[in-house]
Specification:
This is Zn(2)-C6 fungal-type domain-containing protein. The protein is mainly α and 711 residues long. It has two domains: 253 residues, no CATH class; 250 residues, no CATH class. The chain contains 22 helices and nine strands. The strands form four sheets. A three-stranded antiparallel β-sheet has the order 7-8-9, sandwiched between helices. It has a two-stranded antiparallel sheet with strand order 1-2. Strand 4 and strand 5 form a beta hairpin. Helix 8 packs antiparallel against helix 10, helix 10 packs antiparallel against helix 11 and helix 14 packs antiparallel against helix 17. The longest helix has 31 residues.
Length: 711
């Protein structure tokens, strides 16, 4: 017989799709990385996507059945363990050397018994249903923890950990269960509070990041010091435990502890999360999603494009988020008044997730969804009035994300006037309005000489110019909707608005208590900040960094009103703007920059940029560049904050460069699309700049910037 050549072996890579459109057109090999393939990223082009809808399988009934079986097995094991403990107390010790088949939670067991358990692990318990999901499946009901969120003072209930060899139970729930790997930073202080003598959570293993899901066994077992299975590390990244045992908790419990210790204090409003956490499964998923993203990005990251792309594309940090979004969408179909608080809380946390590590489009989508939920919620009878304040603060954040020439930037409702009674809400409303007025003036002023009676307004011309220069999809969409002012802004209208806002600022400042005012730090010479390239600055301190941030908003609002008045009113002096700018520097330099101000658009870097565009001198920008940014970066900042400070550094350098040319930049916009990931902002792109020639005419221009130029 004729010998036939051996059939070539097929690759073990399963391709479910055919690559992105760019790679298909160019006949290149595509690695199909989401959201953008690495081939397009390396070439610096925008990935065209995959143009295929993904259908998700409904596993609600399977997850519910798996949850029921898991609960029955868990309680059966607890009852069996209680009976075994009672027998040990009453029966004499036996010479039988065979160990029991189940782990014991008794801390008085001998080291030999614990070592035997470590060598012979018990039979795996059924997996909790939150773990039973795949890339094509969605979670319907996550595992209910045996304790209340943010309240771990009750009696400790033994928690069944996730065994590394328990994939069979996951198959019963619907699909294979990938184990989620999250790198736990050393700064995350995860402790377990409970009865006296409770143990601290042991160090969680730091895992390298991967675009795909990595496998990390999140086991729960006791290991005695000195045993063969004990950790070889000298000390835990979370500190030494109280006893001689270390405990490795499951992923979900670690996320809950991280949310309790690090995420919840950073939320702008104190909300009673325990009630919502016990009542709602999709709200619990939103809590886990926010904790997972915060845990992933709470450590310093390498600020290069490829590394950031891999981190942001890591599916492990988006699994809980996708689960929460799917659960929220399912609940919105049959939303009732009694669960509107749960829906609003979940939508709020998902919006915070997008504010921290997501896109502008995600923020707008969740904010609009929260508006729809809030319209059906009776806040007067609500048991969580803090949700109202958090919702209004998110609306003010959305204002800053919209183009100043759009009238839809200020969407009024019946709650606008009552918000003036709250100091935090009032100052955000004032700042958003005065900044919008200043930005609109900066954009329209360069078109004033082109305005003719009966012709297009300056706002319409500015919107058309943005479409031609930046080419963003959102700009074209807004222009087609005619979302621009029909009337051109006049100096008289600007002065009238400044007068109204000045009176509101006077009222706001009079309502402050003495302990809410800045206190000058004059105790030592170290309280004075000086340098060769900038003027000496006096630092100020506050009792709370949140109050310091609110006061910086007040000063920036004052600076904006005074600048606009100095342009059109000869009696107003621009020197007051410089004086307020030095106070802003003193407050910011006196703040603890290691505490992240999260879940808001109005962060320190944005406020400093706004203040720098209002100053006539270069002292403000020079102080930020030569002192503040080196101080913050030297002390170590997390990955998300690192991108913000990198953007601030580039903005200050641009302002100084144009200032030396005799051009004062008053406002600028990036060309990034609304669905762009944060890591894409450091790539090369266009920016539109508006300004004036130091009060002698106006200009507009566009630049190509690269916040991280390649070597």
């Amino acid at each position: 017989m004729d010998s036939h050549p051996a059939r070539p072996k097929k690759t073990d890579i399963v391709r479910k799709r055919t690559g992105c459109q760019n790679c298909k057109d160019k006949r290149r090999k595509c690695d199909e990385t989401r959201p953008e393939c690495l081939a397009c990223v390396r070439r610096g082009i925008r990935c065209s996507g995959y143009n295929r809808q993904v259908t998700f399988r409904d596993v609600t009934s399977q997850a519910a059945e798996s949850s029921k079986r898991f609960e029955e097995a868990r309680w059966a094991e607890l009852r069996l363990e209680d009976e075994r403990r009672k027998r040990r107390r009453t029966e004499p010790p036996s010479d039988d050397s065979s160990p029991p088949n189940h782990p014991s939670d008794d801390p008085t067991e001998t080291p030999a018994h614990t070592e035997t358990l470590a060598r012979n692990p018990p039979a795996p318990a059924p997996l909790p249903p939150w773990h039973a999901l795949s890339n094509d499946g969605w979670l319907a009901s996550p595992f209910t923890l045996p304790w209340a969120l943010l309240d771990t003072s009750g009696a400790g209930v033994p928690f069944q950990g996730i065994r590394p060899d328990s994939t069979a139970a996951a198959t019963e729930a619907g699909s294979p269960a990938p184990t989620i790997s999250l790198a736990i930073p050393s700064s995350a202080q995860l402790t377990e509070s409970g009865n006296p003598g409770s143990q601290e959570i042991a160090s969680l293993v730091m895992q390298p990041h991967s675009p795909a899901l990595s496998t990390t066994p999140w086991d729960e077992f006791l290991v005695n010091e000195g045993s063969p299975d004990s950790s070889s590390s000298g000390s835990s990244i979370l500190g030494e435990p109280d006893s001689d045992c270390r405990i490795s908790l499951s992923l979900e419990e670690a996320l809950i502890q991280h949310f309790d210790k690090n995420v919840a204090p950073s939320i702008p409003v104190n909300i009673a999360f325990p009630d919502l956490f016990r009542q709602s499964n999709f709200f619990r998923a939103a809590v886990l999603a926010l904790a997972a993203s915060s845990l992933q990005f709470a450590r310093p990251l390498s600020l290069d494009r490829n590394s950031l792309c891999r981190v942001y594309s890591d599916k492990s940090i988006w699994t809980f988020y996708d689960t929460a979004v799917k659960g929220l969408q399912a609940q919105l179909q049959n939303a009732k008044r009694h669960n509107s608080e749960e829906l609003a809380g979940a939508a709020l946390l998902l919006a915070y997730h997008e504010l921290d590590v997501g896109t502008a489009l995600g923020i707008l989508n969740h904010a609009s969804g929260l508006d729809a939920i809030a319209s059906k919620l009776d806040f007067a009878a609500s048991s969580l009035p803090e949700l109202f304040k958090a919702w209004r603060m998110l609306r003010y954040d959305v204002r800053f994300m919209r183009t100043p020439t759009r009238p839809s930037r200020y969407v009024a409702d019946g709650y606008d006037v009552p918000c003036f009674l709250d100091p935090q809400l009032a100052i955000r409303d004032i700042l958003s309005r005065v900044h919008g007025l200043h930005s609109r003036y900066a954009m329209e002023a360069s078109f004033w000489h082109e305005i003719s009676p009966g012709g297009p307004s300056a706002s319409e011309k500015a919107a058309a110019w943005l479409c031609s220069v930046l080419g963003r999809v959102c700009d074209h969409r807004n222009f087609q909707r005619r979302d621009f002012y029909k009337d051109t802004l006049t100096p008289q209208a600007i002065l009238e608005q400044c007068e109204i806002m000045s009176r509101r600022l006077d009222t706001w400042h009079k309502g402050l208590c003495e302990h809410d005012l800045p206190i000058a730090s004059l105790g030592t010479e170290q309280d004075m900040i000086s340098g060769q390239s900038f003027e000496t600055v006096i630092t100020y301190r506050f009792s709370d960094d949140r109050k310091a941030l609110d006061y910086v908003m007040y000063l920036v609002s004052r600076m904006t009103c005074n600048y606009l008045r100095s342009v059109f009113d000869p009696s107003a002096s621009a020197s007051a703007t410089e004086a307020w700018a030095k106070v802003v520097l003193g407050i910011v330099c006196g703040m603890d920059m290691q505490r992240r101000i999260q879940f808001t658009v109005l962060r320190i870097d944005l406020l400093l940029t706004i203040a720098a565009t209002l100053c006539e001198s270069t002292n403000f920008a020079t102080t930020v560049l030569d002192y503040l940014i080196p101080k913050v970066t030297a002390s170590g900042i997390a990955g998300v904050d690192g991108l913000s400070w990198l953007w601030l550094k580039s903005a200050m350098e641009l302002l100084l460069k144009e200032k030396r040319k005799g051009r004062a930049v008053r406002f600028f916009m990036d060309s990034m699309e609304e669905d762009s990931q944060p890591w894409q902002w450091i790539s090369k792109h266009q920016i539109a700049v508006f300004g004036d020639y130091n009060g002698k005419g106006y200009f507009r221009d566009s630049y190509s910037v690269d916040y991280m130029p390649s070597d």
